[in-house]
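can u pls check wat happens w/ fe (iii) ion
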Amino acid sequence: MEMDSLRKLYVDELKDLYSAEKQILQALPRMAKKAKNAQLKQAFELHLQETQKQVERLDQVFELLGKSPRGKKCKGMEGLIEEGKEVIDMKADDEVRDAGLIAAAQKVEHYEIAGYGTVRTYAELLGERDAAKLLQQTLDEEGATDKKLSQLAESSINVEAAVEA
Ligand code: FE
Ligand code: FE
């Protein structure tokens, strides 16, 4: 398909995010299972529930557009999740692995924040106000998750990981 309009690019970026969220839905349970810190485990479990709602929001956005969300694989997220798997499988102290899980998860959140910020801005420009609102809600959730992960890392998990065994 020739990208001859911002609207086409908008749909393409939305499909990328849809694929990204679907991949995250598969990855988050593995991250939650591997996390040793109870608060981190809980944060991953909560974000899994949020991610389910984010997929529903994207479904609504595609419904507004009268288009299918399918047809694209987000290679960026595939790579980030692959890196997350390396953390899950590495031989490590529990505290160090938890710090690594946070690092992997924050890379995922930053990818999403970039993606949702972009499509929210396109939606506003294209006059898609309902879609822009839905996308802003998800953008806010991703931002809050990123902040929460930073707080967990800085208040305890990184500190514990820094203690030599
Ligand atoms: Fe998400
Ligand atoms: Fe997220």
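The first helix runs from residue 6 to 34.
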